[in-house]
Design brief:
- With 160 residues, this protein is mainly α.
- It has one domain.
- 63% of the residues lie in helices and 0% in strands.
- It is built from seven helices and no strands.
- It has helices spanning 2-10, 16-31, 38-49, 53-60, 68-83, 101-108, 115-146.
- Helix 2 (16-31) packs parallel to helix 4 (53-60), helix 2 (16-31) packs antiparallel against helix 7 and helix 3 (38-49) packs antiparallel against helix 4 (53-60).
- The longest helix has 32 residues, at 115-146.
- The radius of gyration is 22 Å and the shape is elongated.
- The termini are far apart.
Amino acid sequence: MLRRAFRNLLNLDEPPERTALAFAVGTFIAFTPLVGLHMVIAGLLLLVWRVNKVALFTGLFITNPWTFAPAIAASWGIGNLIIGSPQVELPTVTLGALVTSTFWQSLVSQWRQLLPYAVGAMILAIVCSLISYPLMLFAIRAYRRKFPKDIVPKADPLSG
């Protein structure tokens, strides 16, 4: 499936720069920490910017079930290197604790535990999108040089 999407991406009938940019934007979205909202963000970008769907979703699906876990691990690692890992104690979960406001307040106060992941994911998203644009641009241009589309001249309706 990915091979077919990549081949379709190389054959799009639009400027290579525009295709590579849509792919890089998809790659950026794929690595952001907003897991679960990637498709929503991509859909909004399609409506607002009218970028190429094939290019955007091919970049977006770089993180798939097989690459998602390494991307999350890399995000945590990068975030921990930059801001460190906060020492936070999670509250004890009991049936009685679930109905108290103290439990939920202490759980909400633990948002800092996700901060290393968020920072690392944003750095990874920026780096991967900045790398993917020139790589995709090179791949599209090389492919089109190797396999140029045959331009069939249109018949002139006035000529006999």
